[in-house]
Amino acid sequence: MPRVLALPSGPAGGLAGTRWIDKTPACAGAPTEWFFPAHTDRTAYAKGKECCAACPVRSRCLDYAMANEEPDEPWPGLWGGTTPTERRGIHKADSRRSDREAASTGTSTMRKSA
Ligand code: SF4
Question: Which pTM value belongs to this model?
Fold first, then answer.
């Protein structure tokens, strides 16, 4: 059974025992402000992003946020190396892709029945 070897201080810090954190996250012991900066200018997340880039659970961290946050109101902080603004963009792109797939499926269905 996976276990958390060290608690991260980044966003995943409140998720101790969560199954997807089966390796020590790169944010373990890193300053919280790297992931939740007081300001959000272009450089605010730089150190946190470096940390996330080397994280063994990065993709699962991003997947977790994407699956659980509101698309129009992403969680604060870095998750999987992405800012809330970046995740809002990913949600929108995913939504457009789903719309296209649904439209495509509808078209296919119409062609089959025609
Ligand atoms: S991707 Fe970033 S925020 Fe997520 S667990 Fe890894 S280091 Fe922490």
Answer: 0.79
Query: How many domains does the chain divide into?
Result: 1
Do residues 8 and 27 make contact, with C-beta atoms less than 8 angstroms apart? yes
**Cβ 52 under 6 angstroms from ligand 1:** yes
User: What does the pLDDT look like over 81-102, one tens digit per residue?
Assistant: 999 999 999 999 998 988 999 9
79 phi, psi to nearest 5 deg: -135, 125
Residue 3 lies in a domain: no
Nearest-CA residue for atom 2 of ligand 1:
52
Q: Which two tokens stand for residue 77?
A: 């902080």
Residue 80 is part of which domain span?
Answer: 11-113
Distance 109 CA to ligand 1 centre (A): 42
Quick check: is 99 in a domain?
A: yes
DSSP class of residue 27 equals: T
